[in-house]
């Protein structure tokens, strides 16, 4: 009665491990997507007085990509690393997890630096769009920098989890590996039944011969009993 319990527990453990892996993948993809989304939104607007001869002042809108250009490449690298975690196992999976943690931390730091007003003045000032003009105000929009930083922190946590527990997760190739032969030597399904049936019929023919009975007597042209 206790023998079937072990396979059931093993199957439940494997199911829980796969669900944990799927949850991890969702967290990694969500963190990278959040960074990509935030980097394309406006983080700050720099206002400047009117130029000589002009009557109106103007503003320059700066996106996360303008203030922190590394955000999008870091997010794309994290997405590729998430796929690499699914395709690897063992030590390599732990290495990729550590890489994701480092990339996520770098994205969080870059988001914090890009959210500072001084960074907006620097980008729009000398060498930028507002060359030679005095800035009067910087209007920051903190929601998107916070979202980018949150995505980076989520990737950092996901990478740390993969580095610590990734060795227990199943690899993507395990589902497509060919199963070995069954203990009884027969394949599954009908292919395993046909050899067994032919063996039984051959044995019955020999038994009939031993008893002095002609096994072909009464058979039709197709080999069946008439």
Give the key terms.
226 residues, mainly alpha, 2 domains, 3-stranded antiparallel β-sheet, 3 strands, TIGR02234 family membrane protein, transmembrane helix, Trp_synth-assoc_CHP, membrane
Describe the structure concisely.
The chain contains 7 helices and 3 strands. It is mainly alpha-helical and 226 residues long. The protein folds into 2 domains: 17-175, no CATH class; 190-226, no CATH class.
Please tell me how large the radius of gyration is. Answer: 34 Å
Name the average pLDDT.
Answer: 76
What best-fitting shape do the alpha-carbon axes yield?
rod-shaped
What share of the residues does DSSP label as strand, in percent? Answer: 5-15%
**β-strand number:** 3
Please report the number of helical segments: 7
What is the ordering of alpha helices and beta strands?
HEEHHHHEHH
* Biggest sheet statistics: 3 strands, antiparallel
Distance N to C terminus: 48 Å
Q: Which stretches are poorly predicted, pLDDT < 50 over at least 5 residues?
A: 127-133, 175-181, 185-190
Structural class: mainly alpha
Helix content: 55-70%
């Amino acid at each position: 009665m206790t023998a079937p319990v072990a396979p059931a527990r093993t199957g439940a453990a494997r199911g829980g491990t796969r669900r944990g892996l799927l949850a991890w993948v969702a967290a990694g993809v969500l963190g990278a997507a959040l960074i990509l989304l935030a980097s394309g939104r406006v983080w700050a607007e720099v206002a400047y007085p009117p130029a000589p001869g002009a009557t109106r002042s103007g503003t320059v809108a700066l996106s996360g990509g303008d203030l922190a250009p590394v955000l999008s490449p870091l997010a794309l690298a994290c997405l590729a690393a998430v796929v690499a975690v699914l395709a690897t196992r063992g030590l390599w999976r732990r290495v990729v997890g550590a890489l994701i943690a480092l990339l996520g931390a770098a994205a969080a730091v870059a988001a914090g630096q890009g959210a500072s007003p001084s960074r907006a003045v620097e980008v729009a000032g000398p060498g930028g769009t507002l060359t030679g003009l005095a800035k009067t105000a910087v209007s920051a929009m903190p929601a998107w920098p916070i979202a980018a930083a949150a995505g980076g922190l989520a990737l950092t946590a996901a990478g740390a989890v993969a580095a610590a527990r990734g060795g227990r997760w199943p690899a993507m190739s395990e589902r497509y590996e060919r199963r070995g032969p069954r203990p009884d030597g027969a394949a599954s399904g009908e292919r395993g039944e046909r050899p067994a049936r032919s063996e039984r019929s051959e044995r019955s023919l020999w038994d009939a011969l031993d008893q002095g009975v002609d096994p072909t007597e009464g058979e039709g042209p197709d080999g069946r009993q008439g």
